[in-house]
Amino acid sequence: MTFDISKINIPSNPGIYLMKDSNAKIIYIGKAKNLKNRVRSYFLKNQNYKTQKLVENISDIEFVLTDNESEAFLLESNMIKKHRPKFNIELKDQQRYTYLRISDEKYPRLLVARRTREGKFLGSGTTFGPFMQGSSKLLTIGTLRKAFQIRICKQLPNKVCLEYHLGNCEGPCEFKDAEKKYPEHVSALQEVLKGKNQTLIFTKKLEEEMKQAAESQQFERAKDIRDTLIRLGSLKTKQKMEYIENSDEEYFGIGDKDQIATVMNFRMINGVIRDSDKFFFDMIGDNDFSNFLFQYYTIHKIPKFIFVSQPPKNLHLLESLLSEQAGFTVEIICPQRGKRKDIINLILKNILLIHSMGGDPGLLELKEILHLPVIPKVIECFDISNHGVDFAVGSMSQFVDGKPNKSGYRKFKIKTVFGRDDFAMIGEIIKRRYLRLLEENSQLPDLILIDGGKGQLNAALKSLQSLGLSLNCISLAKENEEIFIPNQKNPILISKDKSSLKILQHARDETHRFGVAFNRTIRKNMLNNKKEKNFS
């Protein structure tokens, strides 16, 4: 049942909206200048299939107001990372970013912050990050500990250890002076972890304190401050070298087909293409190029120049947010001529190739994930619809280039199986379908999808083998969306945000809908026939 949007009061303020399913789980998070106008737009007619699927799952909507669009942008991004809604863009790359934690012990330590699968941080204390690999923000944890005299011992010893004698720790475990100064070291570390601007402010503050200490003849204090400044200077030099060596330019091209966006990027180091990635996401609600870029740069190093095939929405806002995050001015440029334009054109040519190869980018993903010999341009999906012992039918949907081909749908009355035996029924309709195609010398599908688990898959494979066919055949079990493939014990799990899984789900849902409708028609006709007999 579709959620009744007229029953809730929607504010007209800027902010974010959290769409929830019947289990109160957040399934989509979006932002808007005007929440009322944005949220109501989802419930208009003629929405694409993916937006319809989102709306069908909405049972409640929650709102969080912000003062402006910039705050909404940031809050939306943070909430997506926290809740990981299945309909949002989510870029996961655990290898490219890290969080650091300052513990809340008597003498706090600096640690790498660990997280659960749900994204919750383990351990108590204050968390900082994310810090990107190779970026000016990632200061190795060992260097930071040494720079700010932070202890590394898990349990505080009674006597100073080797770290003290190496000059990496002042020994708060033994010396009263070190015990008093330790909170200052921790406070200084926190300022640096907050970001580049805070580091500059902190450095100026230290320089002023050193000058005052020298003027008041507190030479020991002035020496300590000088040593801290030297360590900070060393860190800043390291950051600058990393930036020069690793940060040049990044290029992005975007194309869309059937409401699925394909983004491809080139990372250029010293004028040479060093790396490239492809990304796919459903263009639902606020899932656009602007949102993609912001999500991307929460887990990747930010360069000074980002070249794009088309200007993202909220261009100036996005530049401002990325500049604040990076600590330097970031420019997003759409090149019109020259070498940079040629690079963008090359990316767009690659995107066109992806689209031409598979129709839907998700089909290319399916080929790679399932190790298929060809892109599955034609997928046929089978399901059994049971309603008691007497009413059982089979149904088949056909997808061509990732889209429903309704002229290719088929329905089957079960002829040889009695009682409720789904396995045998799947075996029957598979055998009937492909025996007929063989007799007609018709085209066979690239992939057969069975709604069910291992039992249904084995029944289908047995029927195919009896016909002498070796077709790619898998099954999709609905409860956990597990994909079973022949000769493999453990199922495959595809991330819920992947286009490949959504194609399989769409085919499964269409087959189920088609079968239920056929089953209902048969029962209705039989009921009408009984009434006519009774009447006569």
Mean pLDDT: 81
Principal-axes shape call: elongated
Termini distance? 39 Å
Q: What is the third-level CATH name, the topology of the largest domain?
A: Nucleotidyltransferase, domain 5
- The appropriate CATH architecture of the largest domain is 2-Layer Sandwich
Helical fraction = 40-55%
Number of strands: 19
| Tally of helical runs | 15
Secondary-structure content class: alpha+beta
The poorly predicted ranges are: 132-139, 237-247
Report the oligomer.
Answer: single chain
CATH superfamily name of the largest domain?
A: UvrC, RNAse H endonuclease domain
Percent of residues in beta strands?
15-25%
Largest sheet: 8 strands, mixed
Question: What this model shows, in words?
Answer:
With 536 residues, the protein is α+β, with helices and mostly antiparallel strands. It folds into 4 domains: 5-83, 3-Layer(aba) Sandwich (GIY-YIG endonuclease), CATH 3.40.1440; 97-246, no CATH class; 249-358, Ribonuclease H-like superfamily/Ribonuclease H (Nucleotidyltransferase, domain 5); 368-528, 2-Layer Sandwich (Nucleotidyltransferase, domain 5), CATH 3.30.420. 42% of the residues lie in helices and 21% in strands. It has 15 helices and 19 strands. It has helices spanning 35-41, 49-56, 69-83, 141-147, 162-165, 176-193, 196-215, 219-246, 289-296, 315-326, 338-358, 361-370, 422-440, 454-466, 499-535, and strands spanning 15-20, 26-32, 60-65, 97-102, 110-112, 126-132, 249-257, 260-269, 272-282, 305-308, 331-333, 378-387, 391-400, 403-404, 410-413, 447-451, 473-477, 482-484, 492-493. Strands 12, 13, 14, 15, 16, 17, 18 and 19 form an 8-stranded mixed sheet that branches. A 5-stranded mixed sheet has the order 9-8-7-10-11, sandwiched between helices. A hairpin with a 2-residue loop joins strand 7 (249-257) and strand 8. Helix 7 (196-215) packs antiparallel against helix 8. It is elongated, with a radius of gyration of 30 Å. The two termini are 39 Å apart.
